[in-house]
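Protocol step 4 of 6: structure prediction from sequence.
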Amino acid sequence: MNLTATATAAIATLSPVWREALSSSYRALADIVAGIGDDQWHLPTPCSEWDVTQVIQHAAGDQLAYAKALGIGNGPADNPFAPSGAIEGTAAELVRDAIEQTSAAWASVSDETETVPTPLPHGALPTPVAAVMCALDAAVHAWDIAIATGQASPLNDELAGQLLTAARTANPAPGGGPEAEIVEPLRQWGAYAAIVDGEAGDTVVDELLRYLGRDPQA
């Protein structure tokens, strides 16, 4: 595939760290879900249309979609963008199954694999970028749930910097349109809100959250 300058730079930055970014993000999601109180499942979240349970369903479904794209499992049983708010079994089991499938899928990808298919409308992406976009989905939704349930943020500046690098990678738009940062077609579709203006003293975590349409002070 023809690479943009930012894609080439992102590959160089993310190649040594994409596996750790995935594992850190998966730990964050699992740990935050484990910390939800019995009376917190239907609290509102920074994803304004969804409560805690719906964000969990969405996050798990997105991971299963990545696993299927990589050749593992059958994908989500329901539309991740229309979560019902009712989970069969426990949320911890739902997330654990999704993480196990997606972890197995990424483990099957060798370090020499240049590109992999994704469930994103962009299709195949450079492997390190695709992997960290998958990590971004888990980590940012872990943050959404943490904020909703009064838990500590699972993000740190190191991980946030890696996620931001992937999200800002320029790539031909789906359908062969003009180059744009990977998040932008998703933002136009409604997966992310508009960028929130930055403030003096913002950390890398703050910058990531604002870029993804979230208020770090929520």
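Step 5 (inspection) to follow. The longest strand covers residues 177-181.
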